[in-house]
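Problem 3 from the worked examples.
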Amino acid sequence: MKHFRQFEPFIALPHLIKWLPISFVVGILAGTASAALLASLEWATDWRESHRWIIALLPLGGFLSGWIYHQFGRTVEAGNNLLLEEIHNPKNIIPFRMAPLVLLGTDLTHLFGGSAGREGTALQMGASLADQLTKILHFKGANRRILLTAGISGGFASVFGTPLAGTVFGLEVLAIGKIHYDALFPSLIAAIVGNQVTLLLGLHHTPYRHAPSIPTLTIWGLIAAIIAGAIFGIVARFFAQVTHQIGHFFKAKISYPPMRPLIGGAMIAVIVGLSGTTKYIGLGIPTIVDSFLTQLPPWDFAAKLGLTALTLGAGFKGGEVTPLFFIGATLGNALSLLLALPAPLLAGMGFVGVFAGAANTPIASTLMGIELFGLESGVFIAIGCVVSYLFSGHSGIYSAQRIGLSKYSAVYLEEGVTLANYGREKVEPKIDLPDDDEERDSIATAKAIRTNSILDE
């Protein structure tokens, strides 16, 4: 073992040489796919807004999307949760058809007027395209896990224009409290290349206004930021739970899958027709931008939350993240009426804070906030993301996400449990870990001995 440590730098070089070209290819695939997604969503959104009568056909669009997946996409219907399951428990190469199917399904959702995002589509396209390299490279085990993780990072970075956040998101989203750093370099390269490819293809990301002035962090400012973060986390938890419950309800009451988005689409179309506005459907980018510029109605976040939960719960395709940006930015805007922080700053904190709580990715979300809103607001953004992560509890938008380490030192949770199983109360948390330092050390020593014995074998 001692001799091995002396040669570690010589192992690092082959690792870089091996993964540099592979990650470069993954980034090209993910960036190209994201460019196609962004271009098609822009067209779908513009066409819908200039032909609003098509929203009345949302039930038909939902049935068509559901029928296509029922006929051709049953093996990939789980979407992002399938990606996480394959990384944790690899079984089969993700079918290539996941990429075109999710692209088509997402475009149909936005064209007809559903409320959804784009991140889920980008992740699924990036990872499914990357996994096709598994056939060529004959990857198994850790190598395939790294390849899929890089695909997720490339997809996230290229669709949002945030390479640093994309890098960490691919690592952080797999398990709460645990990161596999062996995928760090491939994820970084895939994220950087993916973002650059999207830009080179002429696609541009939405610029958001930075807060014109960042207040000095005082004790009252710190308390206000913590209160905001707690609210972001509670709303994130509520969004995840409502979306999952609506999904369970539709599956329990409607046995034929294509009928679920048809009925859900009819409900959404009626709601949009009665409200007389389309600001709560689609991506909602104009309202997100406005949240940094002017005071918005304080109920905007709730309206978007409800329509998005209904859209995704009914089985429409798309992502959760951009709607979470909408929910967070408008919620932060509303909180500026109560908290002594500028509205643009709170909007930026909410933009990434609600996402941090819902996806359980506080580090990636903080980096995203810094990339989008500037380093000056970084401290406030970090507070909002971390506190939101704590207050969202062990819940989230990805039911296949696993628990690597409990969020709270006083609560022990079994490693490897999925959020779906934890949410169904199949796992009982154990409160009050041993306080005695010697007992804690003995547990850690036992784990270390067991790990070393496995390595020796």
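Problem 4, a separate protein:
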Amino acid sequence: MTSAHVDEGQAGKGRPGGNTGDAGADGEGYQRGLGARQIQMIAIGGAIGTGLFLGAGKAIDRAGPSLILAYAIAGLVIFFIMRALGELLMYRPVSGSFSEYAREFISPFFGFVTGWTYWLFWVVTGITEVTAAATYMTYWWNIPQWLSALVFTVILYGANLISVKLFGELEFWFSMVKVTAILGMILICAGVLTVGFSDAGDTATVSNLWNDGGFFPHGITGTLMTLQIVMFAFLAVELVGVTAGESKDPATVLPKAINTVPWRIAVFYVGALIMILSVVPWSTFKPGVSPFVKAFEEMGLGVGAAVVNFVVLTAALSSCNSGMYSTGRMLRDLALNGQGPRAFTKLTKNGLPLVGTTFSAALMLVGVWINYQWPGDAFTYVVSFATISGMWAWIMILISQIRYRRMADAGTLPQSSFRAPGAPYTSWFALLFIGMVIVMMAIDADARISLYCAPLWALVLFVSYRVLQARTPDAEKTPTGTR
């Protein structure tokens, strides 16, 4: 694609390095090309990816049927986080979202940390997703994982060199495939349980949820140790916040998308796992193998297993595609606030942050090297680091909402039209739950590597911010018009 960059100028909200071209109708320069059905499906599809389709295999092996309870409780916490985000979005919908709110309600430094950490999260998640996609390819062909990862990264980068409207349309259909597949799986499992067809018909029973070692076969500890995998599965639900700057009607569309979180989790996570673990005993599932594919194989539906493998492949690529979308926007928000290279502020004539997207895609090629070096352990390494970096965004959302609510209740800021129920208590509960997950990660030898990397990343950001302060004193200022 040949890009035509518009000139850099002064953006709305007083932020440096903005865009005054005709790339969009709002102060950020983006096109508002995402409609209601696209936002809804992005919100639904964002929560259905590698964490459910592949990561659940390892979680089932560790926790057994009690994984259902872990998903239900974690899902409630996710709803609290999303309602906190919704309150902030209706106060001020911007594409920078989490970093903007951290910048306003905590400090410019935390806005800087949040923006770059969320960008890193999506880069690492992109690596995770192409790793998963490469794993799925081995179901059909014996080809090197690194080669598949390279091809997928290049293809998805090309797919992002399009208009935001087309991006939304592609994500709509990607998400539709995922949703249809899970609903189909639930219906087939329900048929096996009630009618008894397939190879698993004679042994399929709801009592499989407690017959093989009980509901907690590895005790409460085994369930708690899966929390980082469970929380990883929910990462990306906050992506709707990044779409705020390109949504046609954010005041109407975003609250509706957020309010669908409970039934999404109830159907796609809790419901699907209840069905699968009732039809196939939990001890059948092993790490590294999609429980959806394994369930079809155990039912003797080989064609169904191949279809599901294609669907989970689509899910991984869809999530990576969303990641490339998000990274470009987050880098541009940082640059507009003087906290990133000015080159990232440039947009194409179609309103695309091409420079930031290209930079992010180039770093995702690290995933190719990881798959070449450690094809068997690649997924575990990147999942743990993606989880800790993604949860940082949730922490900033919650703290920002608590501080915003305090100021709004005091009358110093306008009230949001979409107040989070039960806040700030629900926000404090969510923060404590995230803290418990981090403790579990410290105990888990596989996940602990992410906690080793986190201080190093924090040091890099601290030094970078000090250099930024020395070179650009204005970076300390809160953007004009945000208070």
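Solution to problem 4. The two ends are 40 Å apart (CA to CA). The CA atoms of residues 205 and 323 lie 39 Å apart.
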